[in-house]
Amino acid sequence: MPAGGTPARLIRYTAPVRRVCIFCGSYSGIRADYAAGARAMAGALVRGGLELVYGGGRVGLMGILADEVLRLGGAAVGVIPRALREREVGHDGLTELHVVETMHERKAMMADLADAFVALPGGLGTIEEIFEVWTWAQLGMHQKPCGFLDVAGYYAPLAAFLDHATREGFIRPQLRAAAIVESDPPRAHVTPWPRRCCSSAPASFIASRPSTRSTSAR
């Protein structure tokens, strides 16, 4: 996605969506396009009247995304393990900040809070998180879309791998089709699982997972 692109149509989804969970890096990466993509996503959320759910950090793309949502007058809800908050990487200016004890609790609460999931550029944590919710869909634990917002070709190699795994018989074609890596967000559409789902604005609400206790800081 070129710098300044607007992922507005990512959020088109036929089921009610109030909150979108976004996974992204705690680093900003080496390209200015990545920060621009995070800000563009923030703008799309706020214009669409959608709240952000994310990992609660103030650094990297996570911080850029949350800061832009707040600057534009939107709501940003963070979920962060206590150990990370105590290392002073938590964002204290959020609409809501839920502090949990473990990474597992963090992911469960984010799933409980959100109606949709989107992966922006990020590292191991980002990939692990989006692949886990995608796997939950494969197991029938939710029926909402999952996907990736490609920025400056970041996810092109991953898309090629997923296509290869599908051809080799390890990913079902309908599951692969449900999470598309889209480099042009304005063209992306989000439709209910297991039909087409766009890479720009994925979604997942894990109704079968128990709610997680947390403390909430404002």
Query: What strand line-up does the widest sheet have?
Result: 5-1-2-3-4-8
* Backbone CA Rg: 16 Å
* CATH-defined architecture: 3-Layer(aba) Sandwich
Helical stretch tally: 7
The dominant shape is globular
Q: H/E element string?
A: EHEHEHEHEHEHHEE
Total separate domains: 1
Helix percentage range: 25-40%
CATH topology call: Rossmann fold
CATH class: Alpha Beta
Distance between the termini: 34 Å
Major β-sheet profile: 6 strands, mixed
What is the chains' assembly state? single chain
How many distinct beta strands? Answer: 8
Query: Average pLDDT, to the nearest integer?
Result: 80
Q: Which percent band covers the strand fraction?
A: 5-15%
Description:
- The protein has helices at residues 32-47, 60-71, 82-86, 103-113, 124-138, 156-167, 173-177; strands at residues 19-23, 51-54, 76-81, 96-100, 116-119, 148-149, 181-182, 215-217.
- It is an alpha/beta fold and 218 residues long.
- The strands form two sheets. Strands 5-1-2-3-4-8 form a six-stranded mixed β-sheet, sandwiched between helices. Strands 6-7 form a two-stranded parallel sheet.
- Helix 1 packs parallel to helix 2 (60-71).
- The chain is globular and about 45 Å long.
